[in-house]
Structure formats: structure tokens, C-alpha cells
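Quick one, C-alpha cells below. Sequence please?
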């Protein structure tokens, strides 16, 4: 990867878990970062099913447990630019948007189908 280290995708308190990220997802994220031309702060990458169940409504089988998802801290014009480029790349099948409050982020994943929900999908938090 040109723009990221595996440690940026570690679950909080679980050193080395970022290596469970899928290479294909990281290649797409690295390309998105190149096209955006601004730094990304990853706020969440890989999560164990148990941890995901604690912090997300997606439970034990959320996108982060697959190693094919990340949350990126981004807002305002950078959020717009990131979304525009992500849609144009046509590889991200799950896009979640939280642009309110202090914890603004965009979730991206490349999951095919998750818990029977259709893909591609866009949602807000």
C-alpha cells in the first residue's frame, strides 16, 4: 500500500488485527486515496465479530468483520469529493454517511451481500 499501514486498520486494543483486512479492499482504498489527493484518517477498520456486536447495530456479521470495510474521518468539501470519487470508481458496494455532530465519517465497503440485504446500498447514520 502506498498511503496506509496495516496498523491503521487495527481494532482498538487488538494490535496486528489490521492484517486481517482483505488485500483487494485495501487496493481500492489506496486508489481512492490517490484520486482524492488528501490524507485519510481511518477511524475503524477490522473488527472481531464480538467487538462489532458491541459497537455496531450490524451485530456479529457486519462489514468490518469481513476485512472489506473502513470508516474514514472526513467532512465538508472533502466528504463531497470522497463520495464523488468513490461512486465513480464503482467498486464500493456499501456507503454509509455520517455528517452530523463531532464524529463525521464515511463508511466504505466492498461486500457483495450482507445479512441478505441487497447491494449496492447507501445509508445514513
Amino acid at each position: 500500500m502506498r498511503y496506509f499501514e496495516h496498523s491503521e486498520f487495527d481494532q482498538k486494543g487488538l494490535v496486528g488485527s489490521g492484517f486481517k483486512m482483505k488485500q483487494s479492499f485495501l487496493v481500492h482504498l489506496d486508489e481512492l486515496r490517490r484520486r482524492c489527493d488528501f490524507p485519510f484518517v481511518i477511524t475503524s477498520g477490522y473488527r472481531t465479530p464480538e467487538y462489532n456486536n458491541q459497537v455496531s447495530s450490524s451485530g456479529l456479521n457486519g462489514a468490518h468483520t469481513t476485512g472489506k470495510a473502513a470508516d474514514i474521518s472526513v467532512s465538508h468539501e472533502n466528504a463531497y469529493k470522497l463520495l464523488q470519487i468513490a461512486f465513480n470508481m464503482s467498486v464500493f458496494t456499501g456507503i454509509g454517511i455520517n455528517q452530523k455532530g463531532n464524529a463525521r465519517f464515511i463508511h466504505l465497503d466492498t461486500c457483495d451481500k450482507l445479512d441478505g440485504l441487497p447491494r449496492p446500498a447507501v445509508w445514513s447514520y
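Residues 33 and 39 are 7 Å apart (CA to CA). The beta strands are 41-44, 69-73, 94-98, 105-109, 121-124.
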